[in-house]
Every structure is written in structure tokens, then in C-alpha cells.
Amino acid sequence: MDYKDLIASNLHECTGLDKEQILGLIEIPPKLEMGDYAFPCFVLAKTLHKAPPMIANELMASEELVKGFDGAVTVDAAGPYINFKIDRGVLARNVLTEIYEAEDHYGDRNIGEGKNVIIEFSSPNIAKPFHVGHAFTTILGNSLSNIYSRLGYNVIRFNHLGDYGTQFGKLITAYRLWGDEAAMQENPIDELTRIYVKFHDECKVSPEKEKELEDTARDNFRKLEEGEAEEVALWQRFRDLSLQVFEKTYNRMGIKFDNYNGESFYSPMIPSVVKMLEDKGLLEESEGAKVVKLDDEGLPPCLVVKSDGTTIYASRDLAAVLYRHEEYNFYKNIYVVGLPQQLHFRQVFAVLKKAGYDFADDCVHVGFGLLKFKDNRAFSTRAGNIIKLDEFLDKTTEKTAEIIRKNSELRGGDMTDEQIAEVSEVVGLGAVTYTYLKSGREKDIYFDWDDMLDFEGDTAPYLIYTYARIKSILRKAHDADIINDDFNLASELTAEDEYAVIRSLADFKDAVVKAAESYEPFMISRQISLIARNFNRFYNNSRIINADTQESREARLMLCKAVSYCLKSGLDMLGIGVVEKM
Fold it and tell me: Residue 45's closest CA among 35, 58, 33, 34?
């Protein structure tokens, strides 16, 4: 029984408010003793011309309010709120039954069935290193993809590669002047980075040198756009070698894509986009360039074609949206791209809307903050000042291994080197992933090794350790043959610590939906962190295998298993694995 849904239905009958609106208004009281759900009556004050406390008392008298509760829910008015308190034993039985049926897919729904959702994320630049700055979009986009998939949407994961633009004219120029073929074979990204940095260093030698190199680069890019065989072959090689390197990182992180159409894919479509905008009378000349003015939308003009006739990000993104809608008829087209690109996407969506494409309203920019270390170092391929993501992941797993090895030694060396390595990879990668997802996505992230790998903090190591602790309890119970999944025993779980766990498990489903609606995976990370905190409090204050009664022992073991299912489900949505032993 979904009591929140039943409460919303009854309130709909009593008030006439839309049920979805009511579901959005229902709150969870700050203290368990106040109840499980609360409905604020402020929203009715204007239409009923009465004080909220008076409205709450009048609603209390309605028989419709308690329809279907069958004594499992008690209702009372507290000032302007109506509080609903569910019988603890009933709720425990319902929640545990539902979790056991879903197992580690608890939280899944079918609300997106038949709807296509495109999520564009990661999108690194070809021929440049995959650095820690790319991790935010990659991890956030992967998590959102997982969440939408688990809610029943058909998710198409797009990696919109940065594989076009004037920088490739520079790269072709640099390769011809300074490229080392042996180095290209051994480590292509490092070599391409070296010559790209050298191009910009050489431009600093003198204005004449800069002009010579920039002119050559522009000419090479023009040849690339016109399909000249030699330039296209070099570009294709740069792209193929880069993808091979990127794939190793994606495979390590458990991330897959359905589509690698980069900027180059959409470039041939741009002439038809330009013609469409001209036919609609939207394209105007501005200092030799072609723009769409967006004064009515309160935005600066959107540059579509530069004065030298070459394309730009906006023109390729316009072509991409039109292609994606025709090909996939998307319900949502989501771009997981940094906040500095907010204006760009507003302009692109506004141009589409002005051109009469209403599906522009279904395009969403999901922005995120900056990654910073304590020394506030910046990430710039041009400057050669980068931290490669693979090297950062290696360092994280090494530090994690040190911690796990010390803990194992304290227990008498109960883990082999191979086990430590396997666990450290899962926990280390999880620590990085969780750091990006534990707060609102628009907040800047400050990496700190001690915070990230704290086994008692708000971290992935803490959550994974909690899961492993539960699995250890369940193994002991299984070996002793004392597990009995009788859901009627769940009515034993009414003590404060037990019920706090039940209550947080019950709220997990709503957290998943809210995470999708707000594009905020931290709704899930926050909820599973609360579940883990509540569980560890229960674990520290309660006897489980050695409980006073058989009924209490079996009920608590059932609760342990339910928590393990939910933690695994939530961590999986975030893109984090678990280990059975730690």
C-alpha cells in the first residue's frame, strides 16, 4: 500500500486540488513523533478565505479524508497542518515486502514507458587528454542516465565529441611541423597534446610567427571542411586514436554510450539549417557574420555563421537538435554541460523556438559547477596544466588500498593482496564518483583526499562499508541457519531506531523521482546516506543475531537485508559499485 498516494487521493476528494499538486505539497515532518506525512493548508487559504488552522480542523471532520485507511493511519490537526501517522508495524510490513519483491531494483518505476530521453554528456575534445575536469559531466550524465532508465524511460546516451572546429586546423599544422610518429604510436594523446601546446608557444615568439601559423591553421581547417583527402585522413586518425584511449577510461568507470556523433557529424547538415533560418526571415547580416537576433527574448544575437563563412558551436547544435528530434522524437533532450555554457544553450533553444519548433521546450541544459583543488589550479590543455583522470583514479585507488590494507592487518590479515586490489578499485572509483554527486550539481567541488576517503563521513567508502557490514551479518545468520523471511514479523520493528530506518527506506522511492525531475542525483545520495546513518545507529544500539527473542532477531535480519537491497540500488543509480567484504 502506497499510503502517500492514498493520502493525496483523499485530499484531492476533500479539497478539489489536483492530485499531483497535493503530492508536491505533502511534507515529511522534521520529527518522527509528529507523524509520517503532513499537508500544509496555506494553499487553500486564498480560495476558502479562512485561516489555515481553521481549514485543517474542518478537513479533519471529513469522512473522505480517512477513506481506505482502515485504522492503519491516524490523523490530527496541528496548527495549519494536517499530520498523518501510519501504524509503524503496518508501514514496516509494507515497506519490507515491497523491497523484497524488487530486491536491488527497489525504486524502479514505469513512469517513463514509451518515452525517449536523450542525455548528452562527457563530450571530450578529440586529441586532448581526458582530465579530471571532464569527470563532472561524465559522472553526472551517467548517473542521470541510470536514474531515467530505472524509471522506465528509453535512454539514449550521447557522447557529443568535440571533433571539429578551428583547433583541428592548428593540430594538423602542428603535426606536420613537429609531429613524432614513434611517439604517436606509443602514446597518441600525449603526443598530440605536446604539439598542440607547442603551436601556441610558437605563436608567442613574434606577431609575424603567430600570423603565419594562424593563417596556415585556418587554411588547413578550410581544407578539412571542404573534404580534402589528406586533411580528412589526419583528422580521422586523430579521432580514432583518441577514442581508443577514451574507451579505456569509460570501461574502467562502467560507462557506456549509444551514440558517438560528434560535431563533425552535424556539420554537413548546417547548410540546410542556414537555409531554413533564411527562409523564415530570421537570419541577418552583422559585420559580415550571420546572426539571429533575440532581442525579444532578452538575449544577445546568436551567431550562426562567422564572417569567414565557417561554422560555430551554435550552428552545429541547432543541426543536432533538429536531427535528434527527427530521428528519436525525444521526450527530453538533456545536455549535461558546465554552467558557463548556459547562455549558449538559452540562445540555441530560443532560436529553435523562434523558428517555430515547439520541441525546443523539451530541450534542457543541466549545468554544473567547477572542480577545484586546494591550490585552485586551473585546467587548460593550451597551457599544458592538467591532471589526467586515469592518473587521478590510480592515485585514489592506491590511497584506498593503503587504508584497507591497514584495516585488514588490524584484523589479522584477513584479505589477500588480490582482494585488496579488487576492493580498492571499487571503493576508490566510488569515492571519486560520490564526491561529484553528494551535493547540488551547481556547487563547486573542492577535492580533499582525507574527506573523500573518510570511512565515517558522507562518502562512498562509508556507504560501501555499511553495505559490506550488512552482508557480513547476513552471512553469519545464513551459516547459523537463522534467517526467516516472514513479513508478518516486520510488525516487530516499531522501536525508534528501527522505525527511523523503515521511514528512510520508505522515502527512497520519492527521492528517485525527485532526482529525475530536478536533474539532481544528490537527492539519491542524500537519501542513501540518511539510510546508512539510521542503520548504523540501529546497529550500534540493537542486538541483531543475539536479540532477546527469535521474532525480534528475524525481523531485524529482514531489516538488514532490506537496507542492503536499497543501498545497492541507490549506489547503482549513482554509478557506484559495492563489495561483499571489506
Answer: 58
Question: What Rg do the C-alpha atoms of the chain give, in angstroms?
Answer: 28
Measure the CA–CA gap between 330 and 350, rounded to whole angstroms.
18
* Tens-place pLDDT, residues 157-174: 999 999 988 889 999 999
d(CA 445, CA 438): 10
CB atoms closer than 10 angstroms to residue 136: 23
Cβ atoms of residues 111 and 152 within 8 Å: yes
Q: Write down the pLDDT at residue 381.
A: 42
What are the phi and psi torsion angles at 208 (to 5°)? -65, -40
Which one from 31, 67, 105, 131 is the annotated catalytic residue? 131
Residue 212 burial class via C-beta count within 10 angstroms: exposed 0-12, middle 13-18, buried 19 and up: middle
222-231, 401-410, 427-436, 482-491: lowest mean pLDDT where? 482-491
**Beta strand spans in 428-480 (E):** 445-446
Strands 81-86 and 37-40: antiparallel
Catalytic one among 4, 128, 354, 438?
128
Q: Which three cell numbers stand for residue 440?
A: 547540488
CA distance 122 to 250: 10
Question: Does the annotation count 128 as an active-site position?
Answer: yes
Give, in degrees to the nearest 5, the angle at Cα 143 between 265 and 369: 80
Q: How far apart (Å, rounded) are the C-alpha atoms in residues 474 and 468?
A: 10
> Could you confirm whether 131 is annotated as catalytic?
yes
The pTM score is 0.91
Q: Which residues contact 373 (CB under 8 A, 6 or more apart)?
A: 446, 447
Residues 263 and 161 sit within 8 Å (Cβ to Cβ): yes
Q: Where on the phi/psi map is residue 443: left (φ > 0), alpha (ψ -120 to 50), or beta?
A: beta
> Beta-carbon neighbour count of residue 251 at 10 Å?
10
CB atoms within 10 A of CB 577: 17
pLDDT value of residue 374: 65
E strand segments, 102-181: 116-120, 154-158
- Distance from chain centroid for Cα 155: 13
Domains of the chain: 3-86 (3.30.1360.70), 166-247 (no CATH), 389-574 (1.10.730.10)
Strand pairing category for 371-372 and 445-446: parallel
Residue 430 phi/psi, 5° resolution? -65, -35
The mean pLDDT of the chain is 92
Question: For residues 289 and 283, what is the distance between their CA atoms, to the nearest angstrom?
Answer: 10
Sign of CA dihedral 249, 252, 257, 259: positive
Distances (CA, A) of 25 to 29, 42, 57, 81, 402: 12, 10, 18, 11, 47
Query: pLDDT by residue (tens digit) across 451-483?
Result: 999 999 999 999 999 999 999 999 999 988 887
User: Which position among 85, 134, 438, 568 bears the catalytic label?
Assistant: 134
CA 38, CA 11: separation in Å to the nearest integer? 11
DSSP 83: E
Looking at residue 133, what is its pLDDT?
82
pLDDT at 380: 43
Mean pLDDT within 68-95: 92
